[in-house]
C-alpha cells in the first residue's frame, strides 16, 4: 500500500458514494487506474465493505446510551446483543467490564426494558449520551462563523 492508496482510502472514508471520476481527480490518477486500485484494495480485504450511516433520531431513536456489562456468561451475552434491535455496536473488552454496548432506543422506558432483559445474565451499568464530540465540533464551527 502506497501514499496514493492511503489517499483513496481517506477519500472513500469521507464519502463512500464518491464517483470514480471524482475520486480519480482527487488522487491525481486516471479513472481506470483509480478503479483498478479500489478493486485491488477490495480484493485484498483492505476495504471490507461500504456502510450507510443512519440518523437514529430520524428513526425516533432519541436515546443513545453506552451500557457496560460485567458478566461471566459471554456467549449468552453475545447472542443476546447480536439479535437485539437496539444494539448498534457491542465490544468485548478486557478488565472488570466484559462488554460495552452502544444502544439507540426510543425512550428511557425502552432503555429500561433492554436493561431488564439483559439483567437475566449480566450486571449492567448505563451511561446516557448527552452530546457527541462531532456534534460539539459542528456547533462550535457554526457559532464561530456567525459572529
UniProtKB/TrEMBL annotation:
This is HTH-type transcriptional regulator LrpC. GO terms for biological process: response to amino acid. Transmembrane segments: none annotated. GO terms for cellular component: cytosol. GO terms for molecular function: sequence-specific DNA binding. Keywords: DNA-binding, Transcription, Transcription regulation. PROSITE patterns: HTH_ASNC_2. InterPro entries: AsnC-type_HTH_dom, Dimeric_a/b-barrel, Tscrpt_reg_AsnC-like, Tscrpt_reg_AsnC/Lrp_C, WH-like_DNA-bd_sf, WH_DNA-bd_sf. Residues 1-62 form the HTH asnC-type domain. It comes from the Bacteria.
